[in-house]
Structures
1.
Amino acid sequence: MNGYGIFVWSSFLLTFLVCAVVYYKTRKTLKKYEKDFAKEIEDLSVEQKKTVLETSKVASKIFSSYNKTI
Amino acid sequence: MFNVFYNSNIFAWIEKIISFINSIFFVLLIIGLSFALILSPPDYLQGDSVRIMYVHVPAAWIGLASFTCIAFLSISYFIFKIKNLILIIKSILPIGLMFTCIAIVTGSIWGQPTWGTFWAWDARITSMVILVLFYILLIASQKLILDEDKANKISSIIAVVGLINIPIIKYSVEWWNTLHQPASIKITGTSTIHSSMLMPLLLMFLVLILYCALIFLMKYKTEIIRIKKKNLKRL
């Protein structure tokens, strides 16, 4: 890099390091929310659970995808 | 008309788009980095330090575009009162802040070999710092104001006021004498950047846009789940 290596590499490393950390944290938070939400549905009474899963497409999708992963 | 904004419709698409981005992201990243770090030519004046442009410029574009989006979504929220717009704004905010900070830091690193200093209170840099402050204000208003409606109103006002800063950033290099160079890429008019540098720049921009889409979709999904969780507690 003709003497500019330190500047170029540090810029790229910093950018991709920040991107990787943000990606990891965002994904971790999402998984935590999915897990908590699925657990809360699981804890509902049979009737409530049935109502929630029938009325909310989002809830049924999260619940089924969470059950697939465990 | 606004069926597309319903959570259940959007939610169904999120998984599909995330998988699609994941399937092409690393290939594009490797191609983009190969061009940015190896295959693109050094600048006749700045030498290899010009390669910093491949992260600095896309980061700045994303920082500015994110704030512009947030401001227009805030105006739309005022008019149409669609709650989903607030979820979209909340999901864009951290992305915009992150890329504006990256643009400032990488610009500062680039400043040392080209200007001989890491920092100067130049019009472009100062207006970018003001943009960061607006992002921080927006995030703080969303986090610190407990009344959701009040928080949404205040953050929308901040976003609309902050929109004034966007043309100031864009034209700061023309309105004032700055260390920062004028724009090399023009949508209307002839660009002064050679295609051998423009192509890797656009490629890196595409890679970072895909990354933003990935983060945005994950954040948006988290926000939808957070609301559904709240509704569940009401049962």
2.
Amino acid sequence: MKKISVFLVLVCWCFSSLAQTVTDSIQYLDEVVLSDTKLRAYTSGVKVRVLNDSVLANNAQSLTGLLAFNSNLYFKENGYGMVSSPSFRGTNASQTAVIWNGININSQLTGQTDFNTINVNNFSDVTVRSGGGSVQYGSGAIGGSIHLNNKLLFENHFENKFQVSFGSFNTKQTSFNSSYGSNEISINAGVSYINSDNDYKYLGTNKVNENGQYNNVNFNFNLGYFVSNKDVLKMYHQTFIGDRHFSGTVSTPSKSGYEDENYRTMLEWSRIANKYTSKLKVASLQEQFRYFENKEKSNYSFGKVNTYLVNYNLNLKVSNKLQFKTVLDYNKYKGSGSSFGSPEREAFSATLLMNHKATNKIVYNLNVRKDFTSGFTSPFVFAVDAGYTVNKFYEVKLNASKNYRVPTFNDLYWNPGGNLNLVPESSYQVDLGHQFTHKHFNVKLNSYYINTSDLIQWQPNTSGIWSPKNVAKVNSYGAELEFETRFHFKAHHFNITSHYSYTVSENIETKKQLIYVPFYKANLAVAYSCKKFSVYYQYLYNGNVFTTTDNLRGRFYSLEAYAVSNIGFNYSVLKTKKQQLKAGVLIKNIYNKNYQNVAFRPMPNRNFNIQLYYQF
Amino acid sequence: MWHLDQCLTGILTFNYIINFKKQTSIMKKIILSIFTLSLFVLSCSNDDDAVVLPLGDYENGILVSCEGGPSSISFISNDFMTTENQIYFNVNNEELGVYLQSVGFNDSDAYIVTDNANTINVVNRYTFEKKTTITTGLSTPRYIAFLNGKGYVTNWGEGGVASDDFIAVVDLATNTVESTIAVGEGPEQILAVGNKLFVSHKGGYGSNNIVTVINTATNDVATITVNDNPDEMVINNAGDLVVLCSGAVQYDASWNVIGNTDGSIVKINVSDNSIISNFNFANGVHPGLMAYNNGALYYVSANKVYTMGDASTSLPTSSIIDLTASYAYGLSVNNNKLYVADASFSAQSELVVYDLSSKTITNTFPVGLGASKIYFNN
């Protein structure tokens, strides 16, 4: 008996150390391949979903579409292709952080990222991290964060992808990506361009989406080079240049135009040793826009912010079970614009993350961060999360955190109205998740509670000047379900994913649901493939939302629920080891539904798109 | 799908309501004609018994124009018993667009001026049935005045461009813009007095300090310099033009506040355009709203209501009402009642009614988003 127990202990130990080496090497690989490793290594108790290239390929037209149909996020879009804002768990767009290779890229002007200024084509994966993440990702990560990652593969390969599509409303899109790698060097570069008249019919009227045309070009260049066995130099760059006309509403046409440019460059030096990894990052981000009230005229208003960033982080492995990461981060923001002169702001933060495998079943993280920002005091924030592996099929994830969102340049400096007395929005949240993993399916069930105070809202004061104030307190709670299954019968492959969310987000004082937060949202994506042929179907249901704060129902106060579906077909014309040629057709809004997700701004009628995809 | 059914039911109910409304209005017309006949008969015998029938659902009441968005118009009957929001949509089954700036009244017509939509919707002011829409010749239209068969509409052009502002001249017979008169930056309110038009130039997105006078008989255009940001105008019982200038906040190139110009109430002689008097407010005080009724002028400054008579030789020093409005955006006075539009742009606004004898709130009514102007449709 004794012998048996000793044997068992030995076996367990062997297995666990074997598992340990596997995790270690995965982590080592992550350190090399990714810029943002804390997204993988310090998230034991957090719900994370990675959307990889196959999902990205079927949703290449827009990041909004990708996430609306493949995650729990809710979007509102001011008409197709126009400003698009995400919302996690009943929070708003400025409470959603967008992270580009580990760096927060939310606009310093508006506090949010317009999801129609991000091109899906040039990223290796898009990761959705639900729940508060201000310790790791800073301001704005209250509801959750969206991560746009470029991977650098250090293995011999040379791969090119060329994609071209043509569709309704004279929509043309083309992209080219090239990736080269060896043991020492890794390069990938991509360019994509889209141009659309976007003049879709407003169903049920004789009007069309006038003045909705847009085009944008996106350029990415990423490079990694092993200077020595332990030192990797990396460079990441992204350029986005967009030119849009802003379409009006169904009853008020618009003449306006909007040009925006984003340039993001980051240099990184990683030193990867056995016990520690250190990374030094230097980055420069530039965002600017020009708004033309009448695009025929030459007068415009503009805004511009340059961000300079230095970030040093050190990951220290004390043992196989315990590791620490410290992050020091300095940002300088220099703004200028028609409405706010040229203000500047500085921010410094210190972060400490601890990851501990307490037992084979329990892994937890303790994280703290303090920001020092010129002009106002940022709160001390923390996050605790833990994952408990009950058995092979079932894991419990729990996290609690304090998060914040700093006022934007517009909030502080906009004239007239800017308010220098604002304090950051702050928020507490807890999130309990259950994960069931099986060979053929996995299910994630999460419930959360978020309490946000000092919510910044713009309101007219008694003399009619609109000014932001820390006014509202909000309670958000709800449940999310994510389901995925993969199976096949012989050559018939199926992949089904579905998301459902129930969200209550109410103003504590008025007890009213916030505007543009649907109680219910659901989606379903079914992909089927057989040999050379594949088909995918996407369905999205958005429950009704209130458009005014008094929670009245009706045309002037709320938007009806809608369901919209897309279907796509792909056929592999040619497939060899070295090359692949695929042709596809995508039909969006197949049932020709008349729907709006922002009041009085109709979305497109049924529309078609044909695609050619060549990989060599 | 349950929500589809619900949606369909909604639409069906809605159509039913529209049809019902149409039917009732047809019924009303028939009843009206029968009554008119009988009235004719009756009136021969006894004048005192004459019953005046309403000309439409929205006669004898208060109209509140609401900027939105979405823009809408609310109705409250004079006896406060009937209220209805979104009357233009209810009657015509279409939205007005944004942002409803003002409504002008000419005989039985109401001209609904919507600035960003660059339209004027012409409706019967009592039934609110649409007659036509003026869609060409307007560029950020603001206010309309009527004189000798013509409508005169102030237009900003682009709010930030000083050289594209004009008055559009509308032929009221055809409801089309027939010509334009170029004026200075940011023409706002417009009043017709005799053969003259008086235009206050608030300045569009910027600031201006003139009142333009257009003599429609001679087409002469003159300007009167006043304090900064002239906006609200009335003709008092003495026949003088009274203009409320809000004064301006001054900024440097980096948008730091460096000072204020004085607001004022200026009285202008309409026959020779001379300034009769100009009462300056204290520096930094920026009054916003003004109304006139029965020999008394009312204005709002720092959320307080002040009043002064035609003969006053100085500004009042004490207020008569402390408003509770979070944003007083419209003011009107009628029949010893003072009406304030307390505007909200994220929820329903409120029309607040004060009794001018007791200075207390007697009624409040929920109205559309961004409630701004209050008109009496009698």
